[in-house]
């Protein structure tokens, strides 16, 4: 699985952040990572230098093998919380989608 992190100009997207983001998102997705070819994470500080609650927006796009890409968005107070929330939403979404495709239903 490929992992890509994109940040806006208000979030310093260095190598350490990329490693932390990859670890948090892949652990949040758990066993589903084996069914994905690529995961893209976009972090945006919506208020810039002004700050405020829930001003970090995390958008995660997951590309399951042989299926269309799926996207979720989560906003939170800091980068770590936004990544955790986004990964949790993506896992729930993908489990639902894969469950619909499961022939055992």
CATH architectural label:
2-Layer Sandwich
**Radius of gyration over all CA atoms, rounded:** 14 Å
Dominant shape = elongated
CATH H level: which superfamily?
Answer: Ribosome hibernation promotion factor-like
Total of DSSP H or I helical runs spanning 4+ residues: 2
Quaternary assembly? single chain
Q: Compute the average pLDDT.
A: 92
**CATH fold title:** Double Stranded RNA Binding Domain
Spatial ordering of strands, largest sheet: 1-2-3-4
Helix content: 25-40%
Order of helices and strands: EHEEEH
The major beta sheet can be summarized as:
4 strands, mixed
Q: How far is the first residue's CA from the last residue's CA?
A: 27 Å
How many domain units? 1
Percent of sequence in beta strands: 25-35%
* Structure classification: alpha+beta
How many runs of DSSP E, i.e. beta strands? 4
Q: CATH class, please?
A: Alpha Beta
* Low-confidence regions: none
Protein name: Sigma 54 modulation/S30EA-like ribosomal protein
Organism: Rhodovulum steppense
């Amino acid at each position: 699985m490929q992992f890509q992190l994109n940040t806006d100009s208000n979030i310093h997207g260095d190598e350490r952040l990329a490693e932390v983001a990859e670890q948090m998102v892949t652990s949040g997705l758990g066993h589903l990572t084996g069914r994905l070819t690529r995961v893209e994470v976009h972090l945006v500080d919506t208020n810039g230098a002004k700050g405020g609650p829930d001003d970090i927006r995390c958008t995660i796009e997951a590309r399951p093998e042989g299926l269309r890409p799926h996207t979720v968005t989560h906003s939170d107070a800091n980068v770590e919380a936004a990544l955790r929330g986004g990964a949790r939403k993506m896992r729930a979404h993908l489990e639902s989608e894969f469950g619909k495709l499961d022939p055992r239903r």
